[in-house]
Amino acid sequence: xxxxxxxxxxxxxxxxxxxxxxxxDSDGTYALDKNGKQVMDKYINKPVKIDNMxxxxxxxxxxxxxxLSILLYLDEYQ
Amino acid sequence: MPDDPxxxxxxxATYGGLEWTKDKLKGLIEGHRKGTIKIVTDKETFKEMEKxxxxxxYKFFIQYISNPSLCQIFQAGLTLRRFEQTNRNLDSLRTxxxxxxxxxxxxxxxxxxxxxxxxxxxxxxxxEKTEKAVKNNLAQFFENFDKNVTFIQExxxxxxxxxxxxxxxxxxxxxxxxxxxxxAVAKKSTEITKLVKKEVSNYTxxxxxxxxxxxxxxxxxxxxxxxx
Lengths: 78, 228
Description:
The complex is a heterodimer of chains A (about 80) and B (about 230).
Chain A: E1 4-6, H1 12-21, E2 25-26, E3 31-32, E4 53-56, E5 61-64, H2 67-77
Antiparallel strand pairs in A: 2-3, 4-5
Chain B: H1 5-11, E1 13-15, E2 18-20, H2 22-34, E3 38-40, H3 43-54, H4 56-64, H5 68-85, H6 91-113, H7 116-127, H8 131-143, H9 145-148, E4 149-151, H10 158-172, E5 176-182, H11 186-199, E6 203-211, E7 218-226
Parallel strand pairs in B: 4-5
Antiparallel strand pairs in B: 1-2, 5-7, 6-7
Helix pairs in contact in B: 3-5, 5-6, 10-11
């Protein structure tokens, strides 16, 4: 079974709903934490946009979906 | 289609041929919470990154190098190579590498990108007598990478570059010094190397030349090996 799902074509409002279900939020552009602060990609230290996010297991890690962040995630968690 | 976004989700909105429904969303969240689903935007890149870690070249490398940053840079280099082969833009990844690992990190990644690690390894194993010596050589080589390798640029002035390289060789006396040039600068790298060779009499020269299959770019790499 393919365990990697793309949300590239997911409607914006559904992405926001997804974040809310996971205890996050959004201002329509960026992912926000429960305190309303922008979620920062832990590897490249940049705010995560909902148009280009990756939500990965490891107690919900939200990253900017770029090759380097993905590489570092896989290095840490796999 | 209803105006209310949640009602739209409940009814199911079709975008790009894929219908995202509330049930699908629930399944996604459940899968994520179980740790079985990875949610990404660019699935192709994610799958590609997973593959890099399975490549024999990477598994071979980590037998010799344990430094975590170098292992990450190696994967980044393999990714640059794959992106180059599939005509993807390299700029974003290059920028990320510099920000994370500095310019030396990018140079190492480009070294890997151009398939030079295995060529260098071939030279090392003919010169070093033990596995420990090979590991030490590789560790030293990457730690001092910018002292041991030059990538020729189009803007380089030959005379200046020759002086720069020969100064480095005389100062650091590396076991191997590498000069690399590709595409428009392949010829320039040959000219520069010949002039450098005249200045460093105790080094022998090995040359490798290759034409990249997908891009037809010519790549030239020169190894100046210190005579023992």
